[in-house]
Specification:
83% helix; mainly alpha; cell membrane; LeuE-type; amino acid transmembrane transporter activity; transmembrane; Lysine transporter LysE
């Protein structure tokens, strides 16, 4: 089991640092609303990974991969959500909305009452959950590292926990780095350019997801 865990850790590390919507949402949330909000967005992403992990252990991701209709439905929802995030960011840039207001408009803002924290976590959670690629990767990857004599659900959750710990470390680096640069990045001109770039990146991820056949 130890050898499997070490091998999975290496693979999971590569997956963790690969660019994707999860990292972008954490980065944008940190720039718009501060470190606390960035960590909350990352926590939402991690919860999404756990949801996919449980689904994998129960065989639900296999059904998703086997059913073109189910996969397409999740993919379309993911495309729509990513494009919506992108369009929202471009709209905020066009209106030159201040950082805090821009974050509050789409649930990535922070520093408010507890309900705002839940909204930030929800954004990270939904961004991860509506990406069917995560489910397919988990379905094809996790079973390879679960020994035959080990209960599937606990072993799968252990692997997801390792992935999430790596993800938390990566998000911490992203959040702390963005937090250090936040003062400069929050200047109106820079902020508009950041919103424009983020919007285009989200739309690009949406287009790429739409182009995939699954």
């Amino acid at each position: 089991m130890l050898a499997s865990l070490l091998a999975f850790t290496v693979v999971a590390l590569i997956l963790t640092v690969s660019p994707g919507p999860d990292t972008v949402i954490v980065l944008r949330t940190t720039v718009s609303s501060g470190r606390r909000a960035g960590f909350l967005a990352g926590l939402g992403v991690n919860l999404g990974c756990y949801a996919w992990g449980v689904a994998t252990a129960l065989g639900l991701t296999a059904l998703l991969a086997a059913s073109d209709a189910a996969y397409t439905a999740v993919r379309i929802a993911g495309v729509a959500y990513l494009v919506w995030l992108g369009v929202r960011a471009l709209w905020n840039a066009r209106r030159a909305v201040p950082a805090e207001a821009a974050g509050a408009a789409d649930g990535t803002g922070g520093g408010g009452p507890p309900v705002r924290a839940l909204a930030i976590m929800r954004t990270g959670f939904v961004t991860n959950l509506l990406n069917p690629k995560v489910g397919v990767i988990y379905m094809t990857l996790l079973p390879q590292f679960v020994p035959a004599d080990v209960p599937v659900l606990p072993a799968t959750l252990l692997l997801v926990t390792i992935h999430n710990l790596l993800g938390a470390a990566w998000f911490a680096i992203v959040v702390l780095a963005a937090g250090l640069m936040r003062r400069g990045l929050s200047r109106p001109v820079v902020r508009r350019r950041m919103e424009q770039l983020t919007g285009l990146v989200f739309i690009g991820f949406g287009i790429r997801l739409a182009a995939e056949s699954g």
